[in-house]
Amino acid sequence: MKPFTYLLKPIASAAIALVATGISLHAQPSAQGPASREVVESVDERRNQYLARVREMQDHRVGLYHEDNYARIDNSAMAILLMRGDEIEACNRRVLELMEEPGTGPFWMFPTAMVAYAGRDKLSDEARGAIRDAWRTTRQLRGDTENHWVMYHAAMYLMAQMYPDEPGSEWWNGLSSSENLEEGRSWLLDWMDITTTIGQGEYNPTHYIGEYAIPLLMLSVWSEEPAMRQRSRMLLDWLFAELATVTLDGMLRGPNSRTDDTSVVERWYALANYFSWQLFGNIPAGEGFRGWGWGNYFSVLAEYYDVPEVIYRIAVDRKHDILQRDRARSRRIWRYGDEHMRPIYKTQYLRDEYAVGSHQGGISDPIQSHVWDVTWTVDDPRGVHNTMFSLHPHSSGKVMQMFFCTYPEPMPHAVTYEGKPSYNSANKLLGCSPYEEVVQDLDTVIALYDIDPEANFPQVNGFFSKDLSDVTEHNSGWIFARGGTTYLAYRPLADYHWQPHIRYPNGRDPTVTEETGGRILTSPHVKNGTILQAADGDEFTDMVAFQSAILALPLSYELDPVPSVRFTSLRGKEIVAKYGETPYIDGQPINYGDWKLFEGPHLNSEVGSRVLTITHGPLGRVLDFNTLSSTDIVLE
Q1: How far is CA 175 from CA 110, 141, 156, 450, 554, in A?
Q2: pLDDT tens-digit readout, 24-48
Q3: Could you tell me which of 382, 405, 159 has the C-alpha nearest to residue 292?
Q4: Do 191 and 133 reside in the same domain of the chain?
Q5: In b/e form, how buried is each residue of 72-82, taking b as 16+ CB within 10 angstroms?
Q6: How far is CA 517 from the centre of its chain?
Q7: Does the pLDDT of residue 436 top 60, yes or no?
Q8: Does the pLDDT value for residue 77 go beyond 70?
Q9: Which residue, 276, 311, 308, is CA-closest to 295?
Q10: Inside any domain, residue 279
Q11: Per-residue pLDDT tens for 531-578?
C-alpha cells in the first residue's frame, strides 16, 4: 500500500479552520428560521460560513452514534471520525464487524473506499486487511444507471490505486490492479467527455447529484494522478455552476431527469438542496437534515472544495431575470429505439419570486422524470408544496425495457417497492410520457397530449397544492390561483374532476398512503392539453386585475384530430403548438438543432466543445477540458 502524504498540509490547515468555528460535537441543524437572502461579500466570511456548515453536518452525523459509544456507526460517520483522528478503536471494531458480511454494488463500494482512504494511516492492520479481503472475495455489481457507474468506477479506480501491482487473484473480478485502475480511469474519462460535449444523462436530478458529486470529490482529493484530480475538480465546478443557475432561492426545480414522489411537490425536500445549503447557504436545513442524509458523505471531504465566487454569485446575487437554454440527453436506450441517447432541450426562466422550467417532452427516464413546472418562492419552503404542473401518468413495461437490461415481467410491479411507489398509480405525479409535447416561452407553458387509448391511465393529471390561495374555477375554463406572491392561470383543454393528492410515507410500500390536503385535477381524455401562465405579484393590483388580463388574451384551440393551441401570452408572444409538429413563437419555428450545450447570461458552451464559460457581472471562469485548465477571467 502506498504512503499517504500529499494531503497532510491541506488537512491540517482545514482542520484548524474547522476548529475555529467553535461548533459543538452534538450540534443540530440550523433549522430555526428561513435562510438569509443576503449576499456575503467577504471571501473570508463566506469560507468560514461554508466550513461551519461542513462541521455542522459532520457533528450531527457523528452525534447520532455517540450515546452507544459508536457501536453501530455507519461508514459516513466512521470516515468523519477517521479524518479527525477520533475514536480509532471504535472504528477498528466497526470495520471488522461490517466486513464480516460485505455488501455489493456501488452503494457499498464507494463508502467502503472512503473509509479505507480516511483510515489508511489510522486503522489497524487487521481492519485494513478486512477491507482489502472484502474486495477480493465479494462479487461487485456495476448497477444499471449512470450514477451507479460513476460510483462503481471511481471506487474501483481508487482501491486499485491503493493496492497496486496485485494479480487478478486478489480482486473480485479476476482483473489485476493495473487492469482495474485502467478500466476505472477509461470509463470515467469517457463519461466526463460525454458530459462536457453533449450533456448529462441524469440532468438536474433532485437526489442523484450527490452520487456524482461525492465520487468526484473523492477523486479530486485522493487520486494520485494530477490530471484526474484536475478533471474531477473542474467537473465539480461544472455541476455546481448549473445547480446555481437553475435553483430558485436554493431550491432545484424542474425539469429533472429523476426526482421522487415527495420532492416533485415539496421542492425543498431533495438532496440537491443540501448542496445549495452547503455551498451557498441560501436555503434552510431541516430538523435532522431531513431528506439530506446522503450529504454526510460529501461533508467528509467538503473542506477540500472551495466554491468559486462566480458560482456563488450566480446562486445568490441575482438582479435580473434569467433565461437559460441547455441541452442534455436521455438515459441510454438499449432496445425499441433508434437513438442511443435522445437529446433533451431544456428551457429555464427564473425571476425573483418564481421560475418556470421544461423540456420538450417525450421519454427521458422511464420512471422518475419530471418534465415541467412553475415553482414559486416562500419565506420558508420546508413542508411547502410550492409548485404547479401537469403530466400524463404513464406506466409501461415495454418502455421500462427500453432502458433496463433485466427480465421484463417483474419490473413494473417490483419498482413500486423499490422507492418508486407511485409508478403503477393512475393518480401519480411523477414521470414522463411518449404522448406529451411541451413548448415554453418565458413564463408560459403549453403541454399537449395525444394519448394512446390502450395505454395505461389515459388521462392528464394536474397538481394543485395544499398551499395555493385564491383558487377560482372561472366559467371561461381558466383556473386562477396564487402561489406565494405569484399569480397562476391554469387552463385545462378538456373536462376534469378533482381527486385528493396522496403521499407515500413509506417510499417502499405503495399500499401505505395519506392525503396531503392538495388536489389532483384529473382529466380523463386522451386528446388533451394544459396552458399555464405565471406572473409576478407586483405586475397587477390584485387577483381581479390578473384575471382580466388573462381573459383578454387571444386563445383558440382544437383537440381533434390532434391537440393544437394558438395563444398570445402575457408577454405579447404568439405561441402556436400542434401535437406532432414544430411549435412556432411569433411566427418563427423553434429550431432545436441550433441549441447550444448551455446558452444564457451565466453559462455558455457549444455542443462538442468541452469548454464551459461561467460568468456573473465582471467575474468569469472558463473550464476547458481540452487543456485541463480552469481560468478565472475579468469581464469589462
Answers
A1: 19, 15, 11, 51, 67
A2: 344 445 556 788 889 999 999 999 9
A3: 382
A4: yes
A5: ebbbbbbbbbb
A6: 26
A7: yes
A8: yes
A9: 276
A10: no
A11: 999 999 999 999 999 999 999 999 999 999 999 999 999 999 999 999
Residue 111: exposure state from Cβ atoms within 10 A (0-12, 13-18, ≥19): buried
Q: What are the b/e assignments for 47-59, b being 16+ CB within 10 Å?
A: ebebbbbbbbbbb
Q: Which helix (H) or strand (E) holds 529?
A: strand 527-535
Tell me the per-residue pLDDT of 453-489, one tens digit each, with 9 for 90 and over: 999 999 999 999 999 999 999 999 999 999 999 999 9
Does residue 81 belong to any structural domain of this protein?
yes
Question: For residues 398 and 385, what is the distance between their CA atoms, to the nearest angstrom?
Answer: 32
513 and 542: one domain? yes
Residues 375 and 522 reside in one and the same domain: yes
Return d(Cα 441, Cα 622) in angstroms, integer.
29
As to burial, measured by CB atoms within 10 angstroms (0-12 exposed, 13-18 middle, 19+ buried), residue 419 is: middle
Contact 340/615 with Cβ under 8 angstroms? no
Q: What is the domain range of residue 20?
A: 1-25+42-53
Q: Scanning the structure block, which residue is given the C-alpha cell 469589462?
A: 636
- What is the separation of C-alpha 247 from the centre of its chain, rounded to a whole number of angstroms? 10
Question: Is there a contact between 491 and 531 (Cβ–Cβ < 8 Å)?
Answer: yes
Residue 421: inside a domain, yes or no?
Answer: yes
Tell me how crowded residue 125 is: count the other CB atoms within 10 A of its CB: 8
Given 529, 555, 571, the domain boundary residue is 571
Q: Are 336 and 428 in the same domain?
A: yes
> Quick one: 66 exposed, middle or buried, by C-beta within 10 A (0-12, 13-18, 19+)?
middle
Q: How many domains does the chain have?
A: 3
Per-residue pLDDT at 16: 35
Do residues 400 and 493 both lie within one domain? yes
**19 and 79, same structural domain?**
no
Sequence-distant (6+) residues with CB within 8 A of 588 are none
Distance CA 510, CA 272 (A): 24
Are 428 and 507 in a shared domain? yes
Which residues, other chains included, contact 581 with Cβ-Cβ below 8 Å and sequence gap of 6+? Answer: none
- CA 612 → CA 188, 561, 623, distances in Å? 19, 44, 5
125 and 177 assigned to the same domain:
yes
CB-CB neighbours of 415 under 10 Å = 20
Residue 612 resides in a domain:
no
Distance, in Å, from the CA atom of 296 to the CA atom of 78, rounded to the nearest integer, reads 11
Smallest CA-to-CA distance from 373 within 473, 478, 248, 476 is with 248
C-alpha grid cell, residue 194 = 460525454
